[in-house]
Amino acid sequence: MADPEGRAALSRTARIDLLVVADMVKPKSRVLDVGCGDGTLLRLLAEERGVDARGIELSQHGVNDCVAKGLSVVQGDADTDLADYPDDAFDYVILSQTLQATRQPRKVLEHMLRIGRHAIVSFPNFGHWRIRAQIAFKGQMPVTDSLAVAWYETPNIHLCTIRDFIDFCAAEGIVIERAIAIDRLGGSSAIRSYRHANLFGEQGLFQLSRR
Predict the structure, then answer these.
(1) What is the edge-to-edge ordering of all strands in the sheet holding 52-57?
(2) Helix or strand or coil: residue 195?
(3) Predicted TM-score of the model (pTM)
(4) How far apart are CA 93 and CA 124, in angstroms?
(5) Which residue would you say has higher pLDDT here, 126 or 183?
(6) Which of 22, 32, 104, 209 is deepest in the core (most CB within 10 A)?
(7) Please, what are the domains in the chain?
(8) What is the torsion angle, in degrees rounded to the nearest 10, for the CA atoms of residue 64, residue 69, residue 75 and residue 81?
């Protein structure tokens, strides 16, 4: 595991949800990071957890960044390419801040839970009070830290709330093993009441498994 000074340095550059995700993953696991971006989480997992870390990333720029860091990443699309992975190929399949940008989120989650023993998903919570306030008082689509792009440029096509996601998991028979809300200051807490988390959590982060 990385030393405290090393983790502190990473904490200054990595998103807080990635640090929380890293704490969820058991050492020496097999991990697939879907939509891995520049490989920040993969590097964190490799250094802190000693995992067998693989990634899939849509953008060629992101793939190049990862390969330059010595990470095992291929170019691919979560909506289409997860179908090519065999059952139970990984211990964890991670989708961080990407679910809302997929065309078929249900299918993506089905494949994640098929090819991994656990799925870890994080997403911006559209039920956060700041988002509600911008819609209610300004009458405009919100722009926040977690939804930082204007409506005409955003890649997000399936926004949801923490409550929506909990209801979805119940309807689909997906087991929620851990549920965490992350506030805008970077604090994280276990979700015990979806009403409170839905109002004050800027991001939702869930560890899932199939029945």
Answers:
(1) 72-75, 52-57, 30-34, 90-96, 116-124, 203-210, 174-182, 188-190
(2) helix
(3) 0.89
(4) 19
(5) 126
(6) 32
(7) 4-210 (3.40.50.150)
(8) -170
